[in-house]
User: What shape does this take?
Amino acid sequence: MKKKQTIIVVGGGFAGLELVKRLGNSSKYELILVDCNNYNFFPPLIYQVSTGFMEPSAISYPFRKILRDKKSVHFRLGALKEVVPSENKIVLNNGELKYNILVMATGAESNFFGNTNIEEKSLPMKTISDALSLRNVILTRLDRATRLKDSQERKKLLTFVVAGAGPTGVELSGILSEMRSFIITKDYPELSKEDLGDIYLIDGQDAVLAAMSKNSQNYTHSQLNKLNVKIKLNTLVKDFKDETVYLSDNTQIPTKNLIWAAGISAKAFKGFAKESYGQGKRLKTNVFNLVDGYKNIYALGDSALVMGDDNYPNGHPQLAQPALQQAKNLAHNLNVAPQEWTPFTYKDKGSLAIIGRNKAVMDFPKQKYHLKGFSAWFIWIFVHIMGLVNFKNKVRTLYNWIGYYIYKDQSFRMIIKPSERKS
Assistant: This one.
């Protein structure tokens, strides 16, 4: 019997987990999924965790339980430090692994564009840890504001600046506004409406949701205005210091809260040739997701800059659908003879963004048609519930959302700061 080849998949996000699930009972391959977390999570809903509208377990699930019925899969908890292509091995923070095929699906991280003040002092929004940290900060500062007599200092604690008007920034601005309208003055009777600070949404482009249609942009802009979100476009966040956000139009916003949703980049690792990386630190690949310069290393999702798709000369959008479709295509190719391989072509299924209660926008593929308001909001709910990893998460999330829809409130606003211990 022919020995199975070992495929190491680094990263258990949309692309990595999809590939592992599709090849998980293979008679041809033995798979090792490597991730620095022991759970998969659903990034599109992370902003709801950060504002206390959802519990972390509603959008996350342990890898080992997901993979129980995958006979050819093993899980390794560890952080990738280095790739050694000449020896077909990877170096983790807790050991080494050998591979026949390596798949890089390490996703993306926040891009602070080299500004150390912003990197050190702002609040990012990429991981469950980021979301819990942001939740703790918001709730701690709300509590602290109830004890302050100085109105200027209180205003700094209760003013939020969101950098980046893509879907995450829009969704976060909307939910913070709803929190201000429906929750804060109930939970914190010491604070009056006059005490509450402003919510700013800042972006360097000339529209919110720049990747979506003009109709979606205009509707979103008008609805955010109705929610009293102060939108500043064609404006960059230049610095964050001395409890002040400095903007490129010379505006200064006194605040302790800069939430960073302004950009992402892929993660670069030691061992790859410099010329293998393209724009945004993404690994350049051919249409089969094979990394340039290597015969047995592939890249998927946010990690991959696929060259050769004429419709996307600058690479595919760093979203869930390209990642899932690339993983599906690679799984098919690895199961057939090389001469039968199918080049990857992205099929746009449209885009969605939620603004708030009963308010969302949806663009159909190629932005031919547009939905807004309740119908788009309902579709957003359905798509995001279906995107969760298992039935239990789907039911829990639906239950949470029904409760919020009826009562305009949730009960996950706990400040939990676990102590770090050496394992």
